[in-house]
Amino acid sequence: MTALVIEAPEVVTLEIVGTRERFPVRRVYCVGRNYAAHAVEMGHAPDREPPFFFQKNSNNLDGSGEFPYPPHSLDVHHEVEMAVMLRSGGTGIKVDESLRHIFGYAIGLDMTRRDLQAEQKSMGRPWEISKAFERSAPVGPIHTVAEIGHPNAGLIELKVNGKDRQAGDLKQMIWKVPEMIANLSNYFELAAGDVILTGTPAGVGPVVKGDVMTASIEGLGEISVKVI
Ligand code: MN
Predict the structure, then answer these.
(1) CA of 200 to the centre of ligand 1 (A)
(2) Spacing, Cα 92 to ligand 1 middle (Å)
(3) Which of 32, 94, 134, 201 is 20 to 30 A from 9, comparing alpha carbons?
(4) Rounded CA gap, 190 and 181, in Å?
(5) 9 alpha carbon to ligand 1 midpoint, in Å?
């Protein structure tokens, strides 16, 4: 084995429902504006424009049930999203072949420093500091395809302190999961361990320390995340 000059960075792993084995994460892709009503609330047309993507870091994923409010922002928003975990990948994947690359699904949150994002957008800069910050992607346990199949309809919602904030249906996705995988694979080489956050329905809004976010997706149960 090759000697390393520093300790190897830890591989991020996620819990899987029904087993003690864990899912190792390689990359995290996120799709923007994938529900029409959310595109409209962010000031954009609800059109079926080509999907666009950004990335978070694998170690931004966090299954602890706590979300530390990040520094240098006064407006941090919740975005509840279905997360897709890949068991294999490749390039140029066809839409009708993409489902076989999926290992499972989970509830995820794409936490966003909305004030910094608006600033970056206005200056034409990358979204990095508004999206890929520490522990910015709380995530629940993975439900395997063997357990639940491929969810493509059903309620996706988020409450803060028990009050309704976000609600939508998975079938409202502008770009469906197979299309997203196919499109991504034209630009990146997808691989086992990749995670895709599939966009958020309308109703995004701010949280403050002490808030409890409860996110649920039909078939994937519910997760609870406390803002600390
Ligand atoms: Mn998002």
Answers:
(1) 5
(2) 24
(3) 32
(4) 8
(5) 27
Residue 193 placed within a domain: yes
| Token couple for 70 | 């990040």
Task: Fill in the DSSP letter of residue 92.
Answer: S
Domain that holds residue 66: 24-227
Distance from the CA of 6 to the center of ligand 1, in angstroms? 34
Of 52, 57, 62, the residue nearest 9 (C-alpha): 57
**What is the whole-number distance in angstroms between the Cα of residue 156 and the centre of ligand 1?**
13
The reply to whether 4 falls in a domain is no
Strands in 76-78's sheet, in edge-to-edge order, are 112-113, 76-78, 205-206
Task: Write phi, then psi, for 208 (nearest 5 degrees).
Answer: -130, 165
> The domain spanning residue 206 has which CATH number?
3.90.850.10
Residue-wise pLDDT tens digits, 71-124: 999 999 999 999 999 999 999 999 999 999 999 999 999 999 999 999 999 999
Ligand 1: distance of its center to the CA of 79 in Å?
6
Domains in the chain, number: 1
Q: Could you tell me if residue 6 is inside a domain? A: no
Print the SS3 string covering 23-83.
Answer: EECCCEEEECCCEHHHHHHCCCCCCCCCCCEEEECHHHEECCCEECCCCCCCCEEECEEEE
Asked if residue 79 belongs to a domain, the reply is yes
Give residue 211 CA to ligand 1 midpoint distance, Å: 20
Ligand 1 center to residue 20 CA distance, Å? 29
Rounded to 5 degrees, what angle do the CA atoms 107, 98, 180 make? 60
